Automatic annotation (TrEMBL):
It comes from the Bacteria. It is a multi-pass membrane protein. Belongs to the oxidase-dependent Fe transporter (OFeT) (TC 9.A.10.1) family. InterPro entries: FTR1/Fip1/EfeU. Its main location: membrane. Signal peptide: none annotated. The chain crosses the membrane at residues 6-30, 42-63, 75-93, 113-131, 151-171, 183-203, 245-266. It comes from Paractinoplanes bogorensis. Keywords: Membrane, Transmembrane, Transmembrane helix. This is FTR1 family protein.
Length: 277
């Protein structure tokens, strides 16, 4: 339970904090422009996004537990895992690229939305939050399938979101000062490793369904040395999906994804050369 809880807590904290940061920027703009009349539609958009993300989680769980089994279940879980990996990869690099201009962009969009009416404000808040919500639900669902647990990932996600909301409120109220750049960097690294494990699980699902070869071609088998039920075996499997047994293709995908994405993540941003007239 500990490993699955920690992985989902990290996912909830990271995505929840990104959403909280966006909402706090929107709230600050409304407060400074003295448009408190737009607070209700803003919170309505946030609530709608949260409900839609929760509904997605319910649908995914229902389909996986009630409608599918065998090969179809393996394919469903593998496909959702690939979508989750793609989304978290895109979001990590999007946040890294847009961090410096996020406030300016959101301020401009909210100013335009205020001119269009309350519905536009609600729609802006919805779109800003739903991306984080969908990513979080897909990641936690995939992590739960890889860890073969249901309750611990859910509790971890709720705890992570609660911590993110509290931290976001403290920053908005100027009670706490947090180095968001450093926080997003290290949570990004951990999420990359979690995503590598989910990619490995997707490969496992496709191999079990017979769509990928090498299901019996093992890269290593240390199950006689590393007890799968031990605390460290459970922790590694539940967080970054390093298991005592893995096929060559599973291990290759995990390693390639982790190395390539980490190298790109830490690559220095290109310097912009000033344009001379």
């Amino acid at each position: 339970m500990g490993g699955a809880f920690f992985a989902s807590f990290l996912i909830g904290l990271r995505d929840g904090l990104e959403a909280a940061l966006v909402v706090s920027i929107l709230l600050t703009v409304l407060a400074r422009s003295e448009r408190r009349d737009a607070l209700r539609p803003l919170w309505a958009g946030v609530a709608a996004a949260v409900l839609c993300a929760a509904a997605l989680g319910v649908v995914l769980t229902y389909v996986a537990t009630s409608l599918l089994s065998g090969v179809r279940l393996e394919l469903f879980e593998a496909f959702t895992s690939l979508v989750a990996v793609a989304m978290v990869t895109w979001m990590i690099f999007w946040m890294r690229r847009s961090a410096r201009t996020l406030k300016t962009e959101l301020t401009g969009r909210l100013t335009e939305a205020l001119g269009l009416g309350r519905t536009a404000v609600a729609a802006l808040a919805f779109v800003a939050v739903i991306r984080e919500g969908v990513e979080m639900v897909l990641l936690v669902f995939s992590a739960a399938q890889a860890a073969s647990e249901t309750l611990a990932p859910l509790l971890g996600m709720i705890a992570g979101v609660a911590a993110a909301v509290l931290l976001g409120w403290l920053m908005y109220a100027a009670v706490a000062r947090v180095n968001l750049g450093r926080l997003f960097t290290w949570t990004g690294v951990l999420l990359i490793l979690v995503a590598a494990g989910i990619a490995k699980y997707a490969v496992h699902g496709f191999q079990m369904a017979g769509l990928l070869p090498g299901g019996t071609n093992l890269a290593y088998d240390v199950s006689t040395t590393v007890e799968p039920a031990s605390w460290y075996g459970t922790l590694l499997a539940a967080t970054i999906n390093i298991t005592p047994v893995a096929t060559v293709l599973e291990a290759t995908i995990w390693f390639l994804y982790a190395v390539v994405v980490l190298l790109l993540f830490f690559r220095p941003a290109p310097k912009r050369t000033p344009v001379t007239a």
